[in-house]
Amino acid sequence: MEETDREAVATAVQRVAGMLQRPDQLDKVEQYRRREARKKASVEARLKAAIQSQLDGVRTGLSQLHNALNDVKDIQQSLIDVNKDWRQSINTIENLKDVKDAVVQHSQLAAAVENLKNIFSVPEIVRETQDLIERGELLQAHRKLMDLECSRDNLMYEQYRMDSKNTHDMNLIHTYFGDMQKLSEELAKQLWMVVQRSLVTVRRDPTLLVSVVRIIEREEKIDRRMLDRKKQTGFIPPGRPKKWKEKMFNILERTVSIRIEGTQADTRESDKMWLVRHLEIIRKYVLDDLLVAKTLLDQCFPPHYDIFNRMLNMYHQALSTRMQELAAEDLEANEIVSLLSWVLNTYKSAEMMGNSELSPEVDVNSLDPLISQNVVEQLLSKYMSTLTSNIIGWLRKALETDKKDWIKETEPEADQDGYYQTTLPAIVFQMFEQNLQVAAQINEDLKTKVLLLCLQQMNSFLTRYKDEAQLYKEEHLKNRQYPQCYVQYMIAVINNCQTFKESIISLKRKYLKIEMEDTLSSSHTSMDATLDIIAKEACTSLLDEVFMDLEPHLNELMTKKWLMGSNAVGTICVTVEDYFNDFAKIKKPYKKTMTMEAHRRVVVEYIRAIMLKRISFKNAEERKEGAERMIKEAEQFRFLFKKLTSGSGEDTEGLCDIIEAIAEVIKLTDPSLLYLEVSTLVSKYPDIRDDHIAALLTVRGDASRDMKQTIIETLDQGPSQPNPNYVPIFKEITVPTLTVPKLLK
């Protein structure tokens, strides 16, 4: 208490200090005192009033408790009296059974009286209801149907209560209301027609669809009420529960399935693109229907129906069923790709389920696959198997078509750079490209598999291509006048090899991941090697063609006629140049190889003519004349091939120098220096053999047998220091075998 007083005093001091902060406030001290006195009196009055109110409440509560206690005692006494009376009247209640039965009968009669008007007007109500159904006034028709059902159900229920085993009276009531069941079925037909066309109806007349939903909801409530009464009494009217809500969803599901299946307008026989059209129509219909379901249909159904998600599940299930049916059919390769591309990509893309207007209700990541992974793998396996057969067939057909071109009397087409070519590479790689583009629509893995397949089949195809080119050459050799454009088409074969190489590289760069390149390196190397073999054999075939024409002129070399001034080498140069005008249409990598090989073969044939010993010079004058002619002809060859190599100045491997070196041996006038000159020749060209030296000395005509023998034996004993850059040429030249034995005798 003292502490409270101290706090009060301290508070008062603070208040006074706050009031008297300036000197002029001392004049108002009396005024402040009166104001504080009034406040104090007011607070004391409020405290007294509050305390008085609490006291009055306590007093009232005590009075009510006292009264309640008295009431409880009175009720207790009354219960004791009631219990006593009840025990005394048990026997009396048992005697009131007749009254109870009378009450039940009265209840039944009361129900009959209450429904009497409806009972007598049943035929009329049935007619009115039928008219309403026919006019499409479904809500009013259902209202009257409900009244009829209610009358029937009440009568049957009262009959059931009175005598549940009396089936005769129950059947009588049921028969009397028999037309009502037909009305219910007729109304249901109308409802299901609207439900089947709900996606159309909701756009044209949404009120009608709402009416149907209201009728179904009414029936659902009646079903629940009847089932609850069955639990209590065991009675349920005929035809209950109707389960119209369940039937509605079943009809919607059936309608969705029919709509999906009904989109197939064509067959493979009538249209090869039937599946693509079918899938595109499905995509468009499903997307349109789901957008309508989300924006319009959802507003016509109660929220607890969750109609959009139910429709989404129905469409998904119907699509899954349809895709599985299509997968089970005997599909062609392109049809398998169309199906898988649609199932794996299109279905969840922005063009369909991933459409922005369907989100967020539709989450594509939560959608189950339309077909199982096992089915996908089976389809992919079938596709690869079919594609393998197709590619083999396409390649065979392409090669057969190309072979037919080879025997045409017209030259092959040329590309923009003027190089001869056939359509084979373009056809083959266009086919590969199309299949790879199709495979890429599905996934990367399939694209890689298809690329591997294409290159694998390409490898086998090139082997057949090589064999066919060889057969083409062999057929030509039987009659060189046929085919007329043999040279031009053989050039096209060579160019095709280069085109194939470039196309393979392009295909790998476009469709193969960098990390997968090592997988195909061996296959690529094998194909390059095969293409080089084909090109080399074709080049050899063309050169064979050249040298068959050159053969008569080559036979003139190193003969008396040649020494007397034959123009054989001039004719050879003109013929080679003429052929190389056509060979100019060979692409560069092979053209260069061709020119080098032609140069080599010309020189080899010239040296072979020397080694055949067709001529033996009689004196120094002939040797000089012959040697100078050889040097001149070597220069002609050098000029020719310089011209053919576009003035690059290359003298391939110094081939013409060999002719000049041999000419120097023949030209030598001092026989004592012959050994030195021959040894120089051998040191430059270490593959030269003894028979070559013997033949060369025979052509000179002034070396005795002993000199030949001495030179050969001395050279055999001498060391050989071959030039590392020298490519052997004499090993290709054979000297007649009888020459050496005759010499050594």
Automatic annotation (TrEMBL):
Keywords: Acetylation, Cell projection, Cytoplasm, Exocytosis, Golgi apparatus, Protein transport, Transport. GO terms for molecular function: SNARE binding. The keyword Transferase does not apply. Its main location: other. Pfam families: Sec6. InterPro entries: EXOC3/Sec6 (IPR010326), EXOC3/Sec6_C (IPR042532). GO terms for biological process: exocyst localization; exocytosis; protein transport. One of its GO terms (cellular component) is membrane. It is found in: Cell projection, Growth cone; Cytoplasm, Perinuclear region; Golgi apparatus; Midbody. Belongs to the SEC6 family. The exocyst complex is composed of EXOC1, EXOC2, EXOC3, EXOC4, EXOC5, EXOC6, EXOC7 and EXOC8. Interacts with EXOC3L1. Interacts with BIRC6/bruce. Interacts with MYRIP. Interacts with SLC6A9. Component of the exocyst complex involved in the docking of exocytic vesicles with fusion sites on the plasma membrane. This is Exocyst complex component 3.
